[in-house]
Design goal:
Strand content: 15-25%
Number of strands: 7
Radius of gyration: 16 Å
Largest sheet: 7 strands, mixed
Distance between the termini: 36 Å
């Protein structure tokens, strides 16, 4: 199964980017599912989260189990094993470890469920700005918990020169078991020209 087939199967026809060979950082990776998916689609991924031994150990375990150079049960042939796990604390102003600075700017920056409090969005936006350039494609997905936090995030990104686009999903049926509702948003950002 290739990237186009996978996106079609998942209903992601609108995803118009090729990940093969692209440098990618997954911010606030958690279990690593987003970064692992990007790596399976060919990106060179850096999975990051807070500097806590249990979280980093979980990321390393999940990446190790899911990014082996072999055919896996989901039918995808893994085309890339150039992925690594490093701790990254978000700060304002951003403090990027030298090991990560050497890899920046990233062509793809992803984050899932990373917009959740007023304090963290300031740190997140500063971190994104430190890791991006005009070539960077930034995808942030999050659940709308507090509209003030979501709005503040969008304002801060705009102030840093990022243009956003709310990615529209196909109309969904609330009776569909996979329906996730309108409380989940996916934004795509690029630095303005």
């Amino acid at each position: 199964m290739n990237q186009e087939q996978l996106f079609g199967k998942a209903g992601l026809h609108w995803l118009d980017i090729c990940l093969t060979g692209r440098s990618c950082i997954d911010l606030g990776s958690g279990t690593g599912i987003v970064g692992i998916a990007c790596a399976k689609l060919g990106a060179n991924v850096l999975l990051t989260d807070i500097d806590h031994p249990d979280i980093i150990a979980l990321l390393e375990k999940n990446a190790g189990q899911n990014l082996l150079p072999s055919k896996v049960s989901d039918g995808l042939t893994i085309v890339n094993t150039k992925s690594q796990v490093l701790p990254l604390e978000w700060n304002s102003p951003a403090v990027i470890p030298e090991e990560i600075q050497k890899l920046a700017p990233f062509e793809l920056i992803v984050g899932a469920d990373v917009v959740y409090s007023m304090e963290t969005v300031v740190k997140l936006v500063d971190t994104i700005a430190a890791l991006a350039d005009k070539r960077s494609d930034i995808w942030i997905g999050h659940e709308h918990r507090d509209p003030r936090v979501s709005d503040h995030f969008l304002v801060l990104m705009k102030e840093r020169g990022f243009k956003s686009k709310n990615v529209k999903r196909q109309a969904a049926n609330p009776d569909d078991p996979d329906y996730i509702g309108d409380h989940v948003a996916l934004y795509r950002f690029k630095l303005g020209k």
